[in-house]
Design a protein that fits this description.
Elements: H1 6-13, H2 17-26, H3 69-85, H4 91-94, H5 97-112, E1 117-120, E2 128-132, H6 139-149, E3 156-160, H7 171-184, E4 189-191, H8 199-204, H9 207-215, H10 219-232, E5 236-239, E6 243-246, E7 259-260, E8 269-270, H11 284-289, H12 305-311, E9 313-314, E10 320-322, E11 330-332, H13 334-343, E12 348-351, H14 356-359, E13 372-378, E14 381-386, E15 406-411, E16 420-424
Parallel strand pairs: 1-5, 2-3, 3-4, 6-12, 9-11, 12-14
Antiparallel strand pairs: 2-15, 5-6, 7-8, 10-11, 13-14, 15-16
Length: 458
């Protein structure tokens, strides 16, 4: 059964009273019971607990179309168990394509209706907000993070900053778990788009091949549905009154769209674009008017804001300039961070997008050893980069690894603007898996993009 109407979406998204009680119980320190497939992460050893002995397989879509906490717990257990015991080609045996279709349809209908900048503002004195950075298909670290932070609930909100797929071996499973949470608690879980939620990146860094491998003759269908879902992901969030989050970061002001003068036919279009040499920070009004439903955000033309939000990077050099290293997006300095915070009366920017490999090539900016860096400290507040994939990347061509920790941030009342950092180490050993891309040939920092292969859009 799929969600074919707004009423069905609301029914699937709204937990029942019993489900709300289950979510409350999930807030306890041990979210999974002893029979579950949860992973643990102590200071001495970072080993997963035994898989759930009898995960319910194959996963079926609820007859009434309403997801429950138990359904999601079982889904996570099934994916964990499958990653350890099944060949990737056997995933449809435990998660049939029909169930995939129902989940993605329900989630897509919810996501496509959200604004480019979602407002996480239904916050009370008992609320907390968990912000998560790049995940990159590291399923077991995602399971640990959810267990450690506590499951989403009516008072525990989650904002995920994108890059759910690519490079890791379980991008599809990770993304589907997050979609399930979105359908179950749409007003507590917010999924933003990362630069890897695109056709170009997924064709280069493994997600496309992962999906085709796992779903065989149905793989093209599954991949196409995922791309459609990516298009609907919001770009940014505003947490409370003072915190802005995005995958890449800040964005430029764009020239007004050309308008034909009223009156006589064939009158010339009046259009005075901003000089190309001049860049200035954009407004939230411009952000919300941008067209995000593009498979690959353009690096030229009039619709530049999505590319800026997903691809831009901070710099220690003052000013706003094109991001020549990536070939798309912007570089912005501490002065721009101050201008943005002051103009919109904000105190904190949380972005992601850069792992230890990228930071290795960024002089003047901190490394990613602990899963986060505080990049700019200015009069009005701070800019933070958050990365939630520890021991990244999963596949690496050299024996020497970064061994970085991952991290998530907790924002607490009353103002939700004072970040509490939670660093964690990778779950080891990871189940054995083969990469879905040529990691020895593909660069790890998203630099030097093959822009000619990216679809342009006006």
């Amino acid at each position: 059964m799929s969600c074919n109407s707004d009423a069905e979406i609301a029914a699937a998204a709204a937990p029942s009273a019993s489900a709300s009680q289950e979510v409350a119980e999930a807030a306890s320190p041990s979210v999974f019971d002893s029979a579950s497939s949860a992973v643990t992460n102590s200071e001495s050893e970072h080993n997963p607990s035994p898989p759930r002995p009898n995960p319910e397989t194959p996963v079926g879509w609820p007859a009434d179309g309403k997801l429950s906490l138990e359904w999601i717990r079982n889904l996570m257990s099934v994916f964990d168990w499958a990653s350890r015991n099944l060949d990737p080609t056997q995933l449809p045996d435990v998660f049939p394509v029909e169930v995939f279709d129902s989940l993605v349809l329900c989630a897509s209908k919810i996501l496509h209706k959200e604004a480019n900048c979602v407002a996480v503002d239904q916050l009370g004195s008992e609320s907390t907000v968990v912000v998560v950075g790049d995940l990159h298909g590291q399923l077991h670290d995602l399971l640990y993070l959810l267990n450690d932070a506590g499951f989403p609930s009516e008072n525990r909100f989650f904002v995920f900053n994108g890059d759910y797929v690519d490079r890791g071996a379980w991008g599809l499973e990770s993304f589907l778990i997050l979609l399930a949470w979105k359908v179950f608690l749409p007003r507590s879980v917010y999924l933003l788009r990362g630069n890897h939620e695109s056709k170009y990146c997924t064709s280069v860094y493994g997600f496309e091949k992962e999906v085709l491998t796992k779903y065989g003759d149905k793989g093209k269908h599954v991949y196409r549905k995922c791309l459609g879902c990516f298009e609907g992901l919001p770009l940014t969030s505003m947490v409370g009154k003072y915190v802005y989050t995005a995958h890449g970061g800040l964005f430029r002001s764009t020239p007004a769209t050309p308008k034909r003068s009223k009156g006589k036919k064939n009158r010339r279009i009046s259009f005075n674009p901003e000089p190309s040499s001049t860049l200035s920070l954009g407004s939230f009004e411009e952000l919300n008017k941008a067209r995000r439903s593009v498979l690959d955000p353009p690096w030229e033309g009039s619709n530049l804001i999505p590319g800026d939000v997903l691809w831009s990077d901070p710099s220690m050099k003052p000013g706003l300039s094109p991001n020549k290293e990536r070939g798309i997006g912007l570089l912005w300095g501490p002065d721009c961070t101050e201008d943005f915070l002051k103009k919109f009366q904000l105190k904190l920017i949380i972005r992601s997008h850069e792992g230890p490999d990228a930071r290795d090539k960024r002089p003047g900016l901190g490394g990613m050893d602990n899963g986060y860096t505080i990049d700019h400290v200015v009069e009005s507040g701070k800019l933070i980069t958050l990365f939630s994939a520890p021991d990244y990347p999963q596949f690496q061509g050299t024996e020497e690894r970064y061994r970085n920790k991952g991290a998530y941030i907790v924002l607490e009342p009353p103002n939700f603007d004072d970040p509490v950092f939670h660093s964690f180490e990778a779950i080891t050993p990871r189940p054995k898996a083969n990469p879905f891309y040529d990691f020895e040939e593909v660069i790890d920092s998203d630099e030097e993009l093959d822009l000619a292969s990216m679809a342009t859009s006006p």
